[in-house]
């Protein structure tokens, strides 16, 4: 999904028509753009999306270590929000917003789990709770995929963990 931002011109006239809004705002006085605030190797320089991906893949690796054969070809997708059709279907059935989907292996496709980042992040009150919630969501989706209970996928399912 790509987004295109359109900003209204703050200035008008011949000087403003030559440069875009972003160039005028970020390159004032001709000194160029500022550098990064944090070095790329520091943990604070990672985006929320990258940190969420790390949590998901850590949880998936843990599940794959328990079910190596069944999850050897597992495909993991992370999307920002569920598709509109899923939201409408859930609302019609009286369910909340879905946090993920699991699709079993078919002759043409490997098993697939899709996790929706924003609904999962909205479930947590703070950043310390997020790893536990991600683990539980992955355990639920893998359990649904393999037709086993989430406790079989992750024995700590539903219990808070301290890292």
TrEMBL record:
InterPro entries: Zincin_1 (IPR010428), Zincin_1_sf (IPR038555). It comes from the Bacteria. The keyword Hydrolase applies. CDD domains: MMP_TTHA0227_like_1. The keyword Ribonucleoprotein does not apply. Gene3D superfamilies: 3.30.2010.20. Keywords: Hydrolase, Protease. One of its GO terms (molecular function) is peptidase activity. Residues 1-27 are annotated as: Disordered. GO terms for biological process: proteolysis. Signal peptide: none annotated. Pfam families: Zincin_1 (PF06262). This is Putative Zn-dependent protease with MMP-like domain. It comes from Neomicrococcus aestuarii.
């Amino acid at each position: 999904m790509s987004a295109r931002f359109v900003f209204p011109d703050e200035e008008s006239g011949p000087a403003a028509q030559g440069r875009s809004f972003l160039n005028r705002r970020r390159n004032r006085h001709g000194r160029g753009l500022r550098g990064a605030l944090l070095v790329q190797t520091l943990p604070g320089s990672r985006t929320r999306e990258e940190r969420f991906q790390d949590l998901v893949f850590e949880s998936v690796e843990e599940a794959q270590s328990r079910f190596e054969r069944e999850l050897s070809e597992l495909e993991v997708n992370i999307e920002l929000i569920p598709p509109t059709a899923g939201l409408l279907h859930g609302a019609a059935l009286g369910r909340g917003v879905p946090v993920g989907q699991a699709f079993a292996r078919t002759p043409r496709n490997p098993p697939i789990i899709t996790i929706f980042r924003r609904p999962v992040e909205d479930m947590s009150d703070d950043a310390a709770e997020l790893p536990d919630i991600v683990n539980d969501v992955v355990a639920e989706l893998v359990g649904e995929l393999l037709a086993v209970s989430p406790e079989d996928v992750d024995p700590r399912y539903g219990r808070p963990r301290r890292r």
